[in-house]
């Protein structure tokens, strides 16, 4: 029987050192073997983190998105080598920036179409564009100009977002490099087209309903807003102060708060159902949600050469030891990542401090959550990951 005293002490230590609060759950073969809540959801009012506490998932929202994408793939809705423009016609005849030998930048046609495999693996050639902050990057500049009318409008659908962004100039030929960014928005639009429903409904019907995930949502319902942990920003002296971000407003109901594809809020219990299913060959409570071999494809590393250099660059130090498959990072080098889990373990992280990993070799899923800015994931996630795997039999 696994012993988790060390993990209890670590999470309590996090809080003693200044982290407002955190939650963690580990499941093995569909059964919970560890669950812990530490610290406060609301420091000022001494409201503790509990099983009902909700956390902003940020980029960990990509796990249900890409799981839904792979489920539609195995249903024959598309081939991974299909051009994106077969389903989203505006993404045809794309152009890229090209630097000439004399250093000048020119705009030329891409050498091949953008494929579905490119958007599922973050190789579409477009970074994220979330503000008008000054940049020297020509692709980002072109995206900023395109986004001005949508930002001025204040709200927009997935289809409006990707239709506008199809006019952006790519940073490189699709499939040649890895860049974290707009691939997810294109993927969400693709799913809307092939499933025939909006992306919220698509993921709800394909993932959340079969997994009985009744808490994970993009818009507040019932008492969800009151259950959200407060978001805290780190001060220079190691203390924290409550902060507000515009992304929180996207959780308010109503089309006036729409801004592209949804980011979710959830708790560790709900997300453990998703990661537990992925760790156990796609099975949840005896029901096959997605094929085991499809999950194997999803978590297979597809990065080589310069793509892997992009992924493991100094900009992404938390990716050490990992490769990238379809929407998930996957462990390919235990020593290189200082990782004591299993090769092939896969998952992702969220920008406010959420983290999840599925380990099919052990049948184990680990889900951890806190919400701070910055998330300090190199400190918290790597320690939590190391101790968690070390506690397993």
Structure notes:
The protein has 393 residues and is an alpha+beta fold. The chain folds into 2 domains: 5-71 and 200-391, Beta-lactamase (3-Layer(aba) Sandwich), CATH 3.40.710; 82-199, Methane Monooxygenase Hydroxylase, Chain G, domain 1 (Up-down Bundle). Helices cover 31% and strands 18% of the residues. The protein is built from 12 helices and 17 strands. It has helices spanning 5-16, 62-74, 116-120, 138-153, 158-165, 183-195, 199-208, 224-227, 268-279, 292-298, 306-311, 377-391; strands at residues 21-28, 31-42, 47-48, 55-56, 95-99, 105-109, 232-234, 240-242, 265-266, 283-284, 287-288, 322-324, 329-331, 346-350, 354-359, 364-369, 372-373. The strands form 5 sheets. It has an 8-stranded antiparallel β-sheet, with helices on both faces. Helix 4 (138-153) runs antiparallel to helix 5 and helix 5 (158-165) crosses helix 6 (183-195). The longest helix is centred in the middle third of the chain and has 16 residues, at 138-153. The N and C termini lie close together (6 Å).
> Total helix count?
12
Fraction of helical residues:
25-40%
CATH architecture of the largest domain: 3-Layer(aba) Sandwich
**Biggest β-sheet description:** 8 strands, antiparallel
What is the H-and-E element order?
HEEEEHEEHHHHHHEEEHEEHHEEEEEEH
At the fold tier of CATH, the topology name of the largest domain is Beta-lactamase
Short description:
This protein has 393 residues and is an alpha+beta fold.
């Amino acid at each position: 029987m696994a012993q988790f005293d060390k993990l209890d002490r670590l999470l309590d230590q996090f809080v003693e050192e200044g982290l407002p609060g955190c939650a963690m759950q580990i499941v093995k073969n569909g059964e919970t073997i560890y669950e812990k809540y530490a610290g406060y959801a609301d420091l000022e009012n001494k409201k503790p983190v509990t099983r009902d506490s909700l956390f902003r998932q940020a980029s960990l929202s990509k796990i249900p998105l890409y799981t839904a994408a792979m489920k539609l793939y195995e249903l024959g809705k598309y081939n991974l080598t299909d051009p994106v423009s077969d389903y989203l016609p505006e993404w045809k005849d794309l152009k890229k920036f090209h630097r000439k030998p004399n250093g000048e930048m020119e705009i030329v046609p891409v050498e091949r179409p953008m494929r579905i495999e490119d958007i599922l693996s973050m190789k579409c050639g477009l970074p994220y564009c979330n503000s008008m902050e000054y940049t020297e990057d020509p692709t980002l500049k072109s995206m900023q100009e395109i986004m001005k009318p949508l930002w001025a409008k204040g709200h927009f659908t997935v289809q409006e977002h990707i239709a506008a962004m199809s006019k952006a100039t790519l940073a490189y030929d699709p499939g040649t490099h890895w860049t974290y960014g707009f691939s997810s928005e294109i993927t969400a639009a693709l799913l809307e087209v092939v499933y025939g429903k909006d992306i919220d409904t698509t993921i709800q019907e394909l993932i959340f309903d079969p997994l009985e995930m009744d808490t994970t949502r993009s818009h507040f319902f019932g008492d969800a807003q009151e259950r959200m942990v407060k978001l805290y920003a780190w001060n220079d002296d190691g203390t924290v102060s409550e902060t507000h971000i515009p992304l929180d407003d996207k959780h308010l109901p109503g089309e006036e708060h729409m801004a592209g594809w949804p980011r979710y809020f959830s708790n560790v219990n709900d997300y453990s159902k998703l990661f537990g299913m992925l760790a156990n060959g796609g099975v949840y409570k005896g029901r096959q949600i997605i094929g085991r071999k499809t999950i194997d494809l999803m978590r297979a590393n597809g990065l080589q050469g310069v793509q892997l250099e992009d992924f493991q660059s100094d900009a992404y130090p938390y990716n050490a030891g990992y490769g990238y498959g379809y929407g998930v990072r996957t462990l390919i080098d235990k020593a290189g990542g200082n990782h004591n889990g299993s090769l092939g373990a896969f998952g992702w992280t969220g920008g406010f401090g959420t983290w999840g990993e599925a380990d099919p070799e052990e049948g184990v899923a680990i889900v951890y959550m806190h919400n701070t800015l910055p998330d300090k994931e190199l400190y918290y996630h790597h320690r939590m990951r190391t101790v968690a795997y070390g506690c397993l039999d």
